[in-house]
Amino acid sequence: LIAPPQVIVSGQLQRCLSTQTDGEVRIAKILKEKFPSASSLKVVDISGGCGAMYEIHIESSEFKGKRTVQQHQLVNQALKDEIQGMHGLRIFTEVPKQ
């Protein structure tokens, strides 16, 4: 098995491939189901492809009126089973600007 090419960007390991890992696809699917009104969703494996750490950017009207910590709790709750196998998770949430 050959590891995908990698580069350091802002001190983080990023893959040079445009294909998503199985973990990214699985997490994105769960979040799309949990937040059907999400206008933007990006899931990135920031552990170099091994699935230990993810960064999630999600914009959804379902976050309207909720504080950031409440928004993050909703994401954590949606991913509670997946989080058990992770080393870390970075969550960035936004309410769409209308």
Automatic annotation (TrEMBL):
Function: Acts as a mitochondrial iron-sulfur (Fe-S) cluster assembly factor that facilitates (Fe-S) cluster insertion into a subset of mitochondrial proteins. Probably acts together with NFU1.
Keyword DNA-binding attributed: no
Oligomeric and partner information: Interacts with NFU1.
Pfam families attached to this UniProt entry: BolA
Family note: Belongs to the BolA/IbaG family.
Alphabetical keyword list: Mitochondrion
Name of this protein: BolA-like protein 3
Gene Ontology cellular component list: mitochondrial matrix
UniProt subcellular location: Mitochondrion
Coarse class of the protein's main subcellular location: mitochondrion
